[in-house]
Amino acid sequence: MGSAVDKARGRVKELAGRLTGDERLEAEGRTDQAKAKAREAVRKLRARARGVMDSIRRS
């Protein structure tokens, strides 16, 4: 599942928790969003590392 979908799901959970007063659901939504952001950051870091490795190999 893509991180954009996870972020959206987290936003929906957080909003639903706020609207219903369910603190647990709200926190779960924030956690889902943080996980998605972390996965996205790791993906970007891996891509950057691949680019560096490719440039080193070409040198």
Question: How would the blueprint of this fold be written?
Answer:
Layout: H1 3-20, H2 23-58
Describe the protein.
- Helix content is 92%, strand content 0%.
- The mean pLDDT is 93.
- α1 (3-20) runs antiparallel to α2 (23-58).
- With 59 residues, it is mostly helical.
- The protein contains two helices and no strands.
- It has helices spanning 3-20, 23-58.
What tags apply to this protein structure?
about 60 residues; mainly alpha
Which regions contain 5 or more consecutive residues with pLDDT less than 50?
A: none
Q: What kind of sheet is the major sheet? A: none
Helix % is over 70%
Distance N to C terminus: 36 Å
Structural class: mainly alpha
List the total number of helices: 2
As a percent range, the share of strand residues is under 5%
Whole-angstrom Rg: 17 Å
Tell me the number of strands.
0
Q: Kindly state the mean pLDDT as a whole number?
A: 93
Q: Spell out the helices and strands N to C.
A: HH
Write a brief caption for the model.
Helix content is 92%, strand content 0%.
